[in-house]
Specification:
single chain; alpha/beta; Aspartate Aminotransferase, domain 2; Aspartate Aminotransferase, domain 1; 2 domains; eight-stranded mixed sheet; four-stranded antiparallel sheet; 12 strands; 41% helix; globular; binds pyridoxal-5'-phosphate
Length: 354
Amino acid sequence: MWVADTDFRAPPVVLAAMRDRLDHGVMGYSSAPDALREAIVARMLRLHGWRIEPGWIVFLPGVVPGLHLAARHLMADRDHALLPIPLYHHFKRALELARRAHTDVPLVLSGGRWVFDEERLAASVRSGTRLLFLCNPQNPGGTIFTRAELERLGELALQRDLLICSDEIHSEILLDADKTHVPIASLAPEISRRTVTLNSPNKAFNFPGAGCAWAIIEDDRLRQAFSADHHATIHDPSVFGYVGALAAYEGGGDWLQAQIDYLRANRDRLERFVGASPGLAMAHVEATYLGWIDCGGLRDPDPYALFMRHGVALSPGAQFGDARFLRFNFGTQRARLELALERIASAVSSTRSR
Ligand SMILES: Cc1ncc(COP(=O)(O)O)c(C=O)c1O
């Protein structure tokens, strides 16, 4: 129940489009179809009321390369970044490999949601702080940041002259029907001009192995700086990634809704289970198919190893910044979810009989 992809086949329209592309037979170098740029522009407007232009889009083979480009090209050698933790581990890795300084800013549980400690965030800005990394919706915490929360982050970025790199790859896996995703760049033109937004249909439509992602960057200079590695170390998406993305956006809507309904029921099952398990706790998952489970109450020094001994593999929390936690990927068939829960129950009860 670990790496963040699901166990579901991609939508039939995506598979058909990829099959057609294969049947075409010529797999030469390619570039993004104009229709895909237009589809992204139309989707941002329809879903978020966010008006972008086709020329703002920079295609990438994945969102992770985008994190690395941000760390390398939006920051000078001596610049410093802010990193909310816990966080999908490739953000930190990008900064470490780029040898850029950073400060971890712990998220806090407030009203049952993982949110910024805004005072601590502001106090972590120092001379040379250039970049705020944001993951919205949050992996592993499952938070959909509200418009008001994002406005306050935007305000900080304006006041302290920070760039924002916002990874929004989970923005279409919203499990709470009454909540909406707000791209931080959509808040105001002055926020947009200092923001790189990373996104991809990889997660929502489950074809990350075919790879297609992009950055949306309004500001010309920022876009040119970000794109410096293109065709040097960073390649374009594959021909299958392009056609898969376009097909998903054109015809994957019903499939996506059905998947979200299924994932929501999995989430509810997991939350009930954790709520009834002594020693475990978990915040409500607003988005993503990931549960961030606090195992501190088990008083076991290595909950990851404990669960493994009972036949269930989760992601170790240390990967995301807190070893007391485990991350549970519930993007799977209900029967497999039940099996995993049975094994976790047996691990939990073993700690009580010690
Ligand atoms: C927040 C976040 N960003 C990026 C990725 C990976 O993106 P890609 O496969 O497009 O590189 C993941 C996958 O788990 C993720 O959760």
